[in-house]
Specification:
mainly alpha, 7 helices, elongated, about 0% strand
């Protein structure tokens, strides 16, 4: 198995991907997969009872059947593997803070967690953006008297014809 400290499952996406390729006749044999992922037959049988694992394998199989072994599918499998390397580098005390910051920014971007541009959002949604500049000193401020004023009217003052 990989060395990612945060194991949400006992299997990796790469294992599901490799099993899917094997089942579609495009990848390594099960024996080669067991060696690469450092698992035995009992672990593979246990994963075969995991509904999430089975769903992930089926998703990969469907994609391979429909689109073939596309560049995007290969890149996604590599990206899953590289997250482990990224995680290890971020938590390694010997890695410079600048490299860690770049890895964190990239991970956030890849995950789609970056904040969206506020200017584009308001332009597309029809929102109103008001900016009030009060000046650099209190002497620049102007006070406007905005007390309400009542306008009296009589019902016969208006001609609606």
């Amino acid at each position: 198995m990989d060395s990612l400290p945060l194991h949400l499952t006992k299997w990796t996406d790469r294992l599901a991907f490799d099993v899917a390729l094997c089942l579609e006749g495009s990848g390594d044999t099960l024996d080669e997969i067991k060696v690469r992922h450092k698992i035995d037959a009992n672990a593979l049988l246990a994963f075969n009872k995991d509904s999430v694992f089975l769903k992930r394998v089926e998703t990969y199989r469907d994609e391979v059947r429909e689109k073939g072994l596309s560049f995007r599918l290969k890149a996604r499998a590599q990206a899953e593997e590289l997250l482990t390397t990224s995680y290890m580098l971020i938590h390694d005390p010997a890695v410079s803070p600048a490299v860690k910051a770049d890895l964190i920014k990239s991970t956030v971007k890849w995950a789609g967690l970056e904040p969206k541009g506020t200017e584009d959002q308001t332009a597309n949604t029809g929102g109103v953006k008001i900016m009030i500049n009060l000046g650099s000193s209190p002497a620049d401020m102007k006070i406007i008297d905005a007390s309400p004023r009542v306008i009296e009217s009589h019902g016969d003052d208006f001609d609606f014809d």
